[in-house]
Amino acid sequence: MDAERIRLNIANVHQRVSTAAEKVGRRADDVTVMAVSKTRSSDEVRTAVAAGLRDLGENYLQEALEKRQATADLDARWHFIGPIQSNKTRAIAEHFDWVHSVDREKIARRLNEQRPDSLPPLDICLQVNVSLEDSKSGVAPEDLAPLARAILQLPRLRLRGLMAIPAPTDDVAAQRAAFARVAELFRDLQETVPTMDTLSMGMSADLESAIAEGATLVRIGTDIFGPRSG
Fold first, then answer.
1. Name one GO molecular function term (predicted).
2. CATH number of 3-225
3. Where are the domains of the chain?
4. Taking the model in full, what pTM does it have?
């Protein structure tokens, strides 16, 4: 997609965020827009960062590593948002600033062990399977608290929040109900985990519902870069 269209799309997304936040008495500045840049070129990433987006989300490790190397001069935060295989944890621990998709203690322990001492603690979100879909990654809601307690013992990780991808639906009431459940789980954990400040939920199709229920970070791909081919 050409640079001017990406810039216009980003402006439109910011307007949607601002309108959604205003409707529920929130400040737009309290919601971070992440550009989901998987399958996108380094030039498209550069355009997004030049337009003011600092947070970049990637699902595919090898592609992300190549893209990060090609854009090493950018002031950006790189977030890994895809499923994590054990053989990928070292590269993720070494090259990302955030991980949104932690759902097992084994993976958390590997990320902790493999995070270089020269880097700050790795910021992580626990992915919760709020819709209990068999096809989705994520920890069941009832297992969140034990996983959080285990992660608090890992010094190279910093537990920052929850991430969720509810079952897709065009029903706004259903969208909000799912996000409200994630927000409730988030508030419950905050009572014992004071570092929790991030609620990563909402994408192009449902960001308004997510913001209405308290999202602090929305993950936007299609409405910034257009439909993807892969």
1. pyridoxal phosphate binding
2. 3.20.20.10
3. 3-225
4. 0.95
